[in-house]
Amino acid sequence: MATSDFALKNHNVKAFGQDAALVIEMNNEDVSSSKPPPFSNEIDNYYLTLHVAPRNAKKDYDWGSNRSVLLKLSTNEVMQMASVFLRIMHTLKIDKRKTSH
């Protein structure tokens, strides 16, 4: 699959639970104005964000509240998360991170 085909597809994963919901979203940084590094390709501009939202009293999810968390994941965090999904590791702990609310 060419990267242009890849960019046209929706790459979001949503999971809803009784107490919270999460979305893992693939994003593409716009670097059209900057000169690309010599040893990179178009796929290097993609990154993942993790958005976790708690459930409120109305049984809706508070995506925009100050209780929700939005993180841009590093490559290491993505690999750790994949290890949990593949059951290589039991837990994932993200510490000491600045978050967007």
Automatic annotation (TrEMBL):
The name this protein goes by in its record: Plasmid transfer protein
Organism listed in the record: Enterobacter cloacae
